[in-house]
Amino acid sequence: MTRTYHTVKYLCLLGWSIFVVFPFLWALSTSFKDANAVTSGATYIPWLEFEPSTQGWASLFASGSRGINIVTPFLNSATVTVLASIISLMLGTLAAYGLSRYQYRAGFVKNSDITFFFISQRIMPPIVLAIPFFLMLKEIGALDTIAGLVIVYIALLLPIAVWVMIDFFGSIPRELDEMAMIDGCTPIGAFFRVILPNSATGIVVAGMFCLIFGWNDFFFAFILTFTKTQLLPVAIVSLNSSVTPWWSLSAFALISVTPLALVAVVVERFMSRGSLAGAFR
Amino acid sequence: MAEITLKGLGHSYFTTPRGDDDYALKPVDLVWEDGKTYALLGPSGCGKTTMLNIISGLLKPSDGELLFDGKDVTEAGTSARNIAQVFQFPVIYTTKSVRQNLAFPLECRNWAPARIADRVAHIAALLELDDILDAPARKLSADQKQLISLGRGLVRDDVSAVLLDEPLTVIDPQMKFSLRRKLREINRATGITMILVTHDQAEAMSFADVVVVMKDGRVQQAGPPEELFARPQNEFVGYFIGSPPLNLFATQAQDAGLYCPALGVNITPPKQMKNDTAKVGVRPEHIHLSQEIGDLPRATIKAIENLGIDRVFSLWTAGGEPFKVKSRRHKHLVQGDEVGLTVSPDDVLLFLGSQRVECSLSN
Amino acid sequence: MLKLENLSTPDPKVPLKSLSANFEAGKIYTILGRTGAGKTELLRTLIGLDPISEGAIHLDGSDLVSTPIRAREMAMVYQQFINYPHLDVLDNVAFPLRRKKLGKALARAKARDALAIVGLAGFETRLPSELSGGQQQRVALARAIVKHARILLMDEPLANLDYKLREQLREEFPRLLHENAEGIILYSTTEPAEAMQLGDELIVMHEGRIVAQGDPAALFDSPPSVDVARVISDPPISICAGEIRDGALLFSDGSGAGATGLTLSKDGPVQIAIRPDALTIGGDIFATVKLAEFSGSDTIVHLQLPFGEAVMLVDGIHEFHPGNPLDIMLDPTALLLFSHTGANITERTD
Questions:
Q1: Contact, C118 vs C151, CB < 8 A?
Q2: For chain C, which end, N or C, has fewer CB atoms within 10 Å of the first or last residue's CB respectively?
């Protein structure tokens, strides 16, 4: 009985793995094809089934009619995502700490209302925000600039950071802050000396969400930029012409997935080292 | 209802255990009779939770067999064993009333409504929950919630045993007593075997007919409370049961036997013994102090703790061995007093290499 | 000297109601009370974690209420094991000294000494999460005593520990706490024996008020009210209704209690309190065993007597079967009498 069970279990896992990995393999093989190879049906093995070509990859570093240079959009995307994530994390962590430890009151507005206000930013459909954002950036002359995008992305990422961190601070016993104050810290000192060093798990999780959402955003990048400040998702779309260059698109997709995949691997290592587990019971 | 037999039952979390140390639960033979109350008692990490998980079916043992009424259930799943379990924190359906909570397991088994109503009424009467049957479960106190958790287990009519995993931890001290009493009453009324896991010796001893004392994955002793107290199998049980713990005194070889200078007693040990590690154990309650010293062995009072009803005396023997005496008398004794010691021969225990051996006292 | 004057708090759950008390340096005060009596609330208010609504707290004449927590020179040990998870054991203990701007080397040297005192020498480089519960609480204790604070507050520090660890630490505490000899130590607990054992002076709290303060043994022998008698007695003291009629003490069933050693001057209804050690086996009161419990190395027998329920304490572990009859003797010299309002009206003849 156990044997059958194990066989079935591993078959299921294998099936799922193939399902997950297949698109990547597909993209990888396609990125080394040329127009002929792409149109001649499904093939996977280079040299045997098709003649590999580096044309797709080359087009990412070319310019003009032969392709598009990926370096600038890549750097733009990285700058905007990382900057916006760091700023959101800093502001979000501070806001979340205040909301989780102190009671605020302005008229009928209490802590729970402020928290809901933050989260509600993510509830409304993005399209609602597109026009106001466009007009505001236009007003301050920040359309099609890195700075403008960073500001907009902070607005998008801050609710995520606040949300994750409020939940995380809720899991740290309040007595820890109190102990720090009894031991001679100011309230601010208690946060920086005791709470922050014990918040790695929460910050890593919140940071990961920020990076993923920031990196993958297409909608705002598309609406708020034109030609000067192009981000990766927009650049990919701009590759599309009357004949779809599948080889370039595949190479491009693989490159844009790589940073997030690296982040995931690093975080996974970090988590499994056990440095985060078991700090609180 | 069932008699539970552990046949060489042991568990290692390693796939290829290299020795005793790799076993979270060292192989053990035990028989748990139908209808009695049992307690698994020991410090954290002693293997009691591992044993409980094996019995409930959450964990498959690496060694041995588990029998319910002679039937091998080692490989059977949790649901096949008909075990009711109460956890440390009450598990109840907060959106339902007490009645719905109790009826739920029967509804899942498609019992007829009339039959469910009968059975729920019966269990509610047993647990004395009749008055609050229609109250929302979430509004109840912790001990009432714990009773509902128990009731949901008992409501099925095919329960073979109830496992209680530190169920009194979250209960107020004042309520603990009444809940413990109710558990015993339910055991008497239903005749269902109950197994309690706890680290609190007072709880284990008060609840169980038989207490299983565990340490480092090994069963140290299984027996009724009074036996654990009066005849501890080894030094650990002597230490773990009783407060203050068992006193231990050094011995000297003398003639054919042993002499304990602290208490002035001669002991005839069993024949085959080596006497280099022999110690004499006496409970702090069993040493009597007297101010008329005469020929009695002497001791000096180092400190006295007044606990209200009892006093705990810390003393030095003439040979400088520290020990304790617990007594309700001697209110006039003060620190620094010299006293004489007497013990009854029945209360003197002999330990060889930390295991207790039978002995007799000679003059 | 720490002085409370009519201290009240606005806490919605357990408000403190007009507490006044004085605490002297160099003494251990144990605060005894049931869950919800206001013990934790009192300690939290003293250290400044919870606000007060009325009254004053003075330390050597200077007002404490307006002093921020970090400047109060107090230390606290919580019931939960609270340590800094990111710091190793040594830096955990050095933490309060570092906040006082002590040099790193000196702070660590002092921390090392404190760890040796609590029996954790050799554990300096471990993280708190790698320690057992008892060891974690020792770290918290070392961090509290290393400051040599003016006031050391301990809020049921043993409540979350295993039975045997509790026994062991309780025995070590008098020595450990005397490390803070110049300080005032307030130690809260729900266990009468612990309070009696550790306290130079005992404070009994009930429903947000201090209901008694004084020498532990004296309070135990002669509690001022029936509430204090209940809180201070473990195993529980049994209260039976009765009356004094024509100079005789009678239970509700009309049977006489015997009154050796008692002066019964005023006729009228009384509450008769029977200590668990006032009852012994072998006498002329017919009782039925309701249940037996074991505590440490005693047996606590719950009895049904003709005039009510009572608890009897028997040395050692013995089996008593529920429902069995038992003949009981009552020692009248160990009785306490309370008026219907709960005041102690016991008068002893010498």
A1: no
A2: C
Residue count of chain C, please give it: 350
Put simply, whether C216 touches B (Cβ < 8 Å) is: yes
C198's tokens: 């550790």
CA distance C276 to C280: 9
Q: Which CATH number among 2.60.40.790, 2.70.70.10, 3.10.129.10, 2.40.50.140 corresponds to the domain C238-338?
A: 2.40.50.140
What's residue A280's pLDDT?
A: 43
State the pLDDT at residue A278.
41
Among C74, C86, C147, the residue with its CB nearest the CB of A197 is C86
> Using an 8 Å Cβ cutoff, are C345 and C337 in contact?
yes
pLDDT of residue B173: 66
Which domains are present in chain A? 2-53 (no CATH), 71-243 (1.10.3720.10)
Instruction: Please determine, for residue B300, whether its predicted confidence score (pLDDT) is greater than 90.
Output: yes
Q: Is A274 on the interface with C (CB under 8 A)?
A: no
Q: Look at residue B229 in the predicted model and tell me its pLDDT.
A: 93
Q: Give the CATH number of domain C2-232.
A: 3.40.50.300
Residue A277, pLDDT score: 43
The answer to whether B307 contacts chain C (CB < 8 Å) is yes
| Average pLDDT of span C253-269 | 83
Do B309 and C275 lie within an 8 Å CB cutoff?
yes
Query: d(Cα C38, Cα C272) in Å, to the nearest integer?
Result: 28
Residue B247 has which token pair?
Answer: 């006193």
- The reported pTM is 0.85
DSSP B78: G
CATH classification of B245-362 is 3.90.110.10, yes or no? no
CATH 2.40.50.140 residue ranges for chain C? 238-338
- pLDDT level of residue A71 (50, 70, 90 thresholds): confident
* C293 contacts B177? CB cut-off 8 A: yes
Option in A173, A184, A280 nearest C100 (CB): A184
Hey, is the C-beta of B158 within 8 angstroms of any chain C C-beta? Answer: no
pLDDT higher than 80, residue B274: no
**ipTM over the 0.90 cut-off:** no
Average pLDDT over residues B121-141: 87
Sheet holding B37-41, edge to edge: B83-86, B161-165, B193-198, B37-41, B210-215, B218-223
User: Given a cut of 70, is residue B183 above it in pLDDT?
Assistant: yes
CA-based nearest distance C35→chain A, Å: 19
Q: Which residue in A179, A181, A191, A198 has the most chain C C-beta atoms within 10 A of its own C-beta, making it the best mutation to test that interface?
A: A179
Q: Reply yes or no on whether the pLDDT at B156 is more than 70.
A: yes
Q: Which CATH number fits domain B4-239: 3.30.1600.10, 3.30.470.20, 3.40.50.300, 3.40.50.170?
A: 3.40.50.300
User: Residue B322: its pLDDT value, please?
Assistant: 96
Distances (CA, A) of A68 to A202, A250, B156: 39, 14, 71
Q: Looking at chain C, which subunits does it touch, using at least 3 CB pairs closer than 8 Å as the criterion?
A: A, B
Cross-chain CB nearest to A185 (options C76, C80, C99): C99
